[in-house]
Amino acid sequence: MQIMTDGPILLLSGDFDVRSTGEVRNAVYDHLRGNDEGAITIDMTEVETIDLTALKVLAVASRFALRRGQRIVLRGTCPAVRRMLHLSHLVRFFELEREAIPA
User: Fold this and answer.
1) Which CATH number covers residue 11?
2) How many structural domains is the chain composed of?
3) Which residues are in the STAS domain (predicted)?
């Protein structure tokens, strides 16, 4: 899992699964604490695989953000991720952008 930042955007690439949840969790919380804007975006365009544990980490982070008056936007989620979000009912924690904005 590679994690990069670009202003209020957190860029993830690689496999987002139980092995990388700690690393991503720390990056998301650090990004939320260091960002006074109302929303941060997690760009998942280059995430190759994701599991339910990873989605739960993002959902808990989203609840944390909401308590701080922030929100998490997921960008570039593939159909399989969106399907998992709906089936797990975790979709309610996020605003979804379907496509990444070209640089």
Assistant:
1) 3.30.750.24
2) 1
3) 1-103
- pLDDT tens, 58-74? 999 999 999 989 999 99
> pLDDT tens digits for 33-65?
888 778 899 999 999 888 999 999 999 999 999
DSSP string, 36-76: -SSEEEEEEEEEEEE-HHHHHHHHHHHHHHHHTT-EEEEES
Give domain status of residue 91, yes or no.
yes
Host domain of residue 38: 2-97
Q: Is residue 83 part of a domain?
A: yes
Q: How many residues appear in the chain?
A: 103
Close Cβ partners of 40 (under 8 Å, ≥ 6 residues apart)? 8, 9, 10, 28, 31, 32, 65, 70, 71, 72, 73
